[in-house]
């Protein structure tokens, strides 16, 4: 690799060199003879964090800075060239190996929000990454400093570098970068209070006198600080865990260096005291980081479930994907993704982006070579701004689009992929439902067109047939000695023709009302005269069915601003319905005016209506009894309600099964009056 000579690279290299030297001076206070290395080598964690937070193009410059500052520092202390170079190479190799391993797994953007970040730091950054520095450090010490035991020296160096990595790297990685959003004042105050109590407990534990005679009691006393450190991890996350661990570690190491506290006063060898404090600090830091990572993962899982539930609700709100898919991308960012985009294939096989949020040209460039064409399976990619997932959208097994989620650097994992696939699956279902709805609407439109055309085609021969029958009846009526048998047959034909005409008109009206309803032709109508006219027209049919019609008019004549033809149609439907189901009994028609409303009540004494069917019968093609017992299409009451509502009126029914039914039709009698917003207490009841 060639050195990166850019200004940013050298500035960061100078900052790393200064930090390295400062931490080295601090670590020198933690050297316990006869060992040559400190029990806590702080620069190990600092150099690892610098590389993980820097682009790979800067790594050669930063590694050169580590090598140079170590060589210069050791030479300034009077060390031999060979020793300085050996230790410098060890520090450089340790930094490079740890960063290279952690960049691959768990990923470069390590923030300890996942348990695998903690495991990666422990095994890759600390256990394996420090092997070169421990080996070369012990080798240099035994070669140039005359130390006898290579393996004992190697163990101290390995533990020292591993502990420095575990303590310092999380502190730097969780605070750098600090983030654009600052914590609220209440959370900052909570952080300060928790860290203060961690410091206070640490001082009390390590400064006070320790029980004598029991090494077990002495070495377990420091673990009294665990609850506060764990509390910091639970409340403040990985940043709080790293900060609390660093505070407690500083207190423990300093008092141990001064020969005080549970570890400094142990009546054991120096190596055993060093090992005890190192184990304590490692367990403390890793435990806090693990707790913080577990809590963070749980919170992310809860967030993902909440987002998925909201995505499902949004997609279910409307079949119009042009409005719902952009809302889906807005839900994903920033809760579960840094950026999201959705592409769909149009009717011309052109793939176009239909929704995006947080999507930048750089993220778009990261997909080059992966998309288009549409993916047939889930793909992951690495771009300039991090990793991402590309998931196909399928409808009926065919790829119709794709969903891309940018997850940030090092955030790619199985859980993120499963989340993206789940969101894509829900979007695919919404697209399929939208297409099914479009097909259903198209089929309904075809059906409505067919019904309309068929009804219009039927009207012409029916009108011709009716006119011819009526003309023939008139001709026979004027002839003397007319055959009554022929007249009865012609009258029956005429009656069935009128019935068939009404059925055709009803079918046409259903199509008309479903597309918005007819335009009412309002005029001043004498409703009393209209009711009398309709009853007179049905008198013959009433006699034929064995029923009698009786009209009761309360008050004076009723006039209203109505569509005469439509009101007549509604009255005819109610009378025809009463005669059909009246069982040959009397049918009462009551007309009156209540306030500014006209009320027509048609009451029969027939079979009645079951309670569960009293609202259903006003639907299209609905009936309360079997069609085998009573004929008809089940459209009369539906059209009557639509006519009433078009006028601003209403219709309802009161019935007792087996004892007849009363249909109450209410219409406004003044222009512009509507019953829709009328007080329910002021509306008349059936049978009133």
Automatic annotation (TrEMBL):
Q: Which Gene3D superfamilies match?
A: 1.10.287.130, 3.30.450.40, Histidine kinase-like ATPase, C-terminal domain
The catalytic activity of this protein is classed by the Enzyme Commission as: 2.7.13.3
Which residues does the UniProt record annotate as the domain Histidine kinase?
A: 453-671
Catalytic class of the enzyme: transferase
Which reaction(s) does its UniProt entry say it catalyses?
ATP + protein L-histidine = ADP + protein N-phospho-L-histidine
According to the UniProt entry, where is the signal peptide?
Answer: none
Listed transmembrane segments: 30-52, 121-148, 154-177, 189-208, 214-234, 278-296
Record key words, sorted? Cell membrane, Kinase, Membrane, Phosphoprotein, Transferase, Transmembrane, Transmembrane helix, Two-component regulatory system
Q: Where does the record place it?
A: Cell membrane
Domain of life per record: Bacteria
How this chain sits in the membrane, per its record, is: Multi-pass membrane protein
Which CDD domains does the record associate with it? HATPase, HisKA
Q: Which SUPFAM superfamilies match?
A: ATPase domain of HSP90 chaperone/DNA topoisomerase II/histidine kinase, GAF domain-like, Homodimeric domain of signal transducing histidine kinase
* Protein name (Swiss-Prot/TrEMBL): histidine kinase
The organism is Myxococcus landrumensis
């Amino acid at each position: 690799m060639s050195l990166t000579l850019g200004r940013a690279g050298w500035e960061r290299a100078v900052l790393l060199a200064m930090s390295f030297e400062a931490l080295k001076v601090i670590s020198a206070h933690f050297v316990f003879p006869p060992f040559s290395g400190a029990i806590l080598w702080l620069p190990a964690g600092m150099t690892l964090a610098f590389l993980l937070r820097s682009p790979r193009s800067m790594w050669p410059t930063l590694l050169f800075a580590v090598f140079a500052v170590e060589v210069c520092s050791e030479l300034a202390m009077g060390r031999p060239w060979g020793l300085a170079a050996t230790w410098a190479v060890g520090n450089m190799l340790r930094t490079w190996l740890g960063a290279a391993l952690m960049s691959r797994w768990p990923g470069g953007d390590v923030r300890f929000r996942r348990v695998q970040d903690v495991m990666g730091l422990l095994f890759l950054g600390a256990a394996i990454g420090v092997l070169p520095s421990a080996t070369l450090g012990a080798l240099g010490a035994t070669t140039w400093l005359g130390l006898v035991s290579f393996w004992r020296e190697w163990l101290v160096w390995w533990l020292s570098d591993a502990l420095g990595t575990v303590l310092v790297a999380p502190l730097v990685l969780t605070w750098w970068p600090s983030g654009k959003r600052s914590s609220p004042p209440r959370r900052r105050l909570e952080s300060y209070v928790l860290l203060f109590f961690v410091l206070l407990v640490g001082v009390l534990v390590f400064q006070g006198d320790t029980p004598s005679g029991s090494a077990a009691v002495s070495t377990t006393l420091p673990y009294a600080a665990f609850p506060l450190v764990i509390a910091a991890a639970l409340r403040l996350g990985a940043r709080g865990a790293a900060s609390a661990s660093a505070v407690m570690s500083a207190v423990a190491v300093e008092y141990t260096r001064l020969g005080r506290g549970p570890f400094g006063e142990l009546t054991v060898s120096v190596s055993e005291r060093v090992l005890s404090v190192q184990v304590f600090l490692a367990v403390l830091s890793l435990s806090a980081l693990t707790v913080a990572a577990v809590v963070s993962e749980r919170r992310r899982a809860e967030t993902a479930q909440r987002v998925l539930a909201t995505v499902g609700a949004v997609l279910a709100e409307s079949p119009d994907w042009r409005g719902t898919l952009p809302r889906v991308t807005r839900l994903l960012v920033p809760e579960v993704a840094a950026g999201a985009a959705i592409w769909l294939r149009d009717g011309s096989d052109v793939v176009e982006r239909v929704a995006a949020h947080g999507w930048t040209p750089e993220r778009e460039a990261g997909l080059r070579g992966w998309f288009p064409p549409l993916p047939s399976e889930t793909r992951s990619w690495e771009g300039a701004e991090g990793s991402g997932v590309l998931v196909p959208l399928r409808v009926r097994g065919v790829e119709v689009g794709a969903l891309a989620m940018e997850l940030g650097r090092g955030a790619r994992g199985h859980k993120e992929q499963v989340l993206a696939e789940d969101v894509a699956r829900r979007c695919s279902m919404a697209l399929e439902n939208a297409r099914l709805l479009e097909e259903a609407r198209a089929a309904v439109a075809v059906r409505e067109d067919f019904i309309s055309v068929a009804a219009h085609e039927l009207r012409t021969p029916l009108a011709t047939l009716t006119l011819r029958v009526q003309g023939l009846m008139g001709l026979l009526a004027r002839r003397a000695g007319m055959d009554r048998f022929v007249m009865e047959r012609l009258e029956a034909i005429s009656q069935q023709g009128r019935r068939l005409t009404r059925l055709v008109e009803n079918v046409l009206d259903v199509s008309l009302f479903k597309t918005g309803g007819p335009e009412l032709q309002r005029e001043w109508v004498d409703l009393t005269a209209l009711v009398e006219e309709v009853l007179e027209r049905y008198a013959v049919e009433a006699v034929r069915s064995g029923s009698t019609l009786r009209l009761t008019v309360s008050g004076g004549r009723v006039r209203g601003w109505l569509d005469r033809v439509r009101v007549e149609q509604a009255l005819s439907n109610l009378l025809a319905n009463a005669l059909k189901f009246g069982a040959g009994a009397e049918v009462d028609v009551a007309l009156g005016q209540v306030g500014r409303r006209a009320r027509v009540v048609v009451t029969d004494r027939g079979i009645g209506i079951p309670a569960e069917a009293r609202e259903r019968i006003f639907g299209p093609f609905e009936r309360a009894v079997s069609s085998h017992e009573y004929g008809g299409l089940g459209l009369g009451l539906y059209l009557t309600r639509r006519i009433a509502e078009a006028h601003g009126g209403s219709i309802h029914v009161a019935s007792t099964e087996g004892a007849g039914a009363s249909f109450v039709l209410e219409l406004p009698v003044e222009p512009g009056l509507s019953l829709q917003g009328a007080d329910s207490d002021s509306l008349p009841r059936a049978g009133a």
